[in-house]
Amino acid sequence: MRKAPSLAIFAVVLLATLPSFADKIKGDSTLKDNQPYGTKDTEHKHQGYDLTFDAKGKTYTCRTDPSHSMNATDFVVGGAIHYEIDNNKANIKTPQNKKVDCKIVRAAIISATP
């Protein structure tokens, strides 16, 4: 019975000493790609999209939820975006105030060009 409080204290100390990965990354970038994925069906009433952009030395691919609509013409490749990344969730906004929530499905380090 005495082990439960000591395990809880250990867990709190462990979590406090680990680096924080929950920090939000915010910034402005250019939308590099906008590709549809999947197909519409009875479960997925809208087309899903993969949006690709660079942020903080990485290239991110962010997938929209096919249960919510998104107008692909609002997110023009080469256009300016503002992004907020929180763990594997992202929010992308255009200068025209068009917004979309998505999930990060890929992150790659931007390689230096020789």
Radius of gyration: 19 Å
Shape, principal axes of CA atoms: globular
Structural class: mainly beta
Provide the spatial order of strands within the biggest beta sheet: 1-2-3-6-5-4
Main pleated sheet? 6 strands, antiparallel, barrel
Low-confidence blocks of residues: 10-21
- Beta fraction of the residues? 35-45%
Mean pLDDT figure: 84
Whole-number tally of structural domains: 1
Q: Residue share in helices?
A: 10-25%
Number of strands: 6
Whole-Å distance between the termini? 62 Å
The helix tally amounts to 1
Spell the H/E element sequence. HEEEEEE
Description:
This protein has a six-stranded antiparallel barrel. The longest helix is centred in the N-terminal third of the chain and has 15 residues, at 3-17. The protein has one helix and six strands. The protein has 114 residues and is mostly beta strands.
Put the structure in a nutshell:
This protein has 114 residues and is mainly beta. It contains 1 helix and 6 strands; from the N terminus they run αββββββ. The relative contact order is 0.20.
Layout of secondary structure:
Layout: H1 3-17, E1 25-37, E2 48-55, E3 58-64, E4 80-86, E5 89-93, E6 99-109
Antiparallel strand pairs: 1-2, 1-4, 2-3, 3-6, 4-5, 5-6
Write a concise keyword list for the protein shown above:
single chain; mainly beta; 1 helix; 13% helix; 6 strands; 114 residues
